[in-house]
Design goal:
The chain is an alpha/beta fold. The N and C termini lie far apart (54 Å). Strands 1-2-3-4-7-8-9-12 form an 8-stranded parallel β-barrel. A two-stranded antiparallel sheet has the order 5-6. The protein has a single domain, classed as Alpha-Beta Barrel (TIM Barrel), CATH 3.20.20.150. It is built from 9 helices and 12 strands. β10 and β11 form a beta hairpin. α4 runs parallel beside α5. The protein is globular and about 50 Å long.
Length: 290
């Protein structure tokens, strides 16, 4: 028996509120419950392109009910290898089919004539700025839409000739693209690389931030955090999210959970926590940092 949604989308739009990373194991519960707390879903499009059968049918039911954002895994924008235009063509078709409201990728690389299955940091240099910004412009021109780049977590910084925030700002400006701000990554990096997380937030351009990610991580040691997306979001990350709302406004926020996925009820508790924090910051008007 098909599940019918009560709110089919007529056109793509950037959602408000709190969203959830869609994983296949969650599909049955999500279709049955259709939780109102979840305003939108996000997927890695590579995991859903050309998926048919029962999974494809259920996925289409969800995308007809809620806005969909896509967060890519394999564009490898900073790779020395050529851009994968076959992938980009598939992405463009997928975005049109599912009325994808926004596409984002990682400000990193994950391949060089073969996938590394990890996100590698780029050198914070002028040369890297020009290189990656040029490739982002190519992608935007091909897709005929703006994209957002995400700040990544990393454990060693190759050739750090400038601060990470200066590098991010330079790429965003030269590429004329947007920013997906991952709050957990800032928190993890702030501990691993000994910097102030709120100062990092303040150094980013408010006008380019489209939405936020939060997730859980693993505490390896007092001064080492590993970005796993495999645990509940800790209080310090929620506190940093609250500060991000104070600086940028309560923009859409996505809860990521990739491993050790608990029952939907537990995830919705965290989604509701996001909504609760958002509600303390009034409307969603973007705030200018001064």
């Amino acid at each position: 028996m098909e599940t019918k949604c009560s709110n089919k989308l007529s056109a793509p739009s950037l959602p408000e509120g709190a969203g959830l990373g869609l994983r296949r194991s969650l599909l049955p519960e999500l279709l049955e419950q259709q939780p109102e707390a979840v305003s939108f879903f996000e997927v890695a499009p590579e995991n859903w392109i050309n998926v048919g059968g029962s999974y494809g049918k259920k996925f289409r039911q969800l995308t007809e009910c809620k806005p969909l954002l896509c967060h890519g895994l394999s564009l490898s924008i900073g790779s020395p290898a050529a851009l994968d235009f076959e992938l980009l063509k598939k992405l463009k078709d997928f975005f049109k089919t599912h009325q994808v409201a926004l596409y984002s990728e990682h400000l990193s690389y994950c391949s060089d004539h073969g996938h590394l299955y990890d996100l590698m940091p780029l050198p914070f240099t002028d040369e890297a700025v020009h290189y990656v910004a040029g490739r982002i412009r190519q992608v935007q021109d091909f897709l005929e839409q703006r994209i957002a780049m995400e700040n990544i977590s990393y454990y060693a910084a190759p050739s750090p000739h400038m601060q990470e925030t200066a590098f991010i700002n330079a790429v965003l400006e030269e590429a004329d693209c947007d920013l997906l701000l991952d709050v957990n990554n800032i928190y993890v990096n702030s501990i691993n690389h000994r910097y102030n997380a709120e100062d990092f937030l303040l150094a980013l351009p408010a006008e380019r931030v489209r939405y936020f990610h939060i997730a859980g991580h693993y505490v390896e040691a007092e001064d080492i955090r590993i970005d796993t997306h495999g645990a509940a979001v800790c209080n310090p990350v929620f506190e940093l999210l609250d500060k991000a709302y104070n600086h940028f406004g309560p923009l859409p926020t996505l809860l990521e959970r990739d491993f050790n996925i608990p029952p939907l009820k537990e995830l919705l508790t965290e989604v509701n926590q996001i909504t609760k924090i958002q509600s303390t910051h009034g409307n969603t008007e973007r705030r200018k940092i001064v």
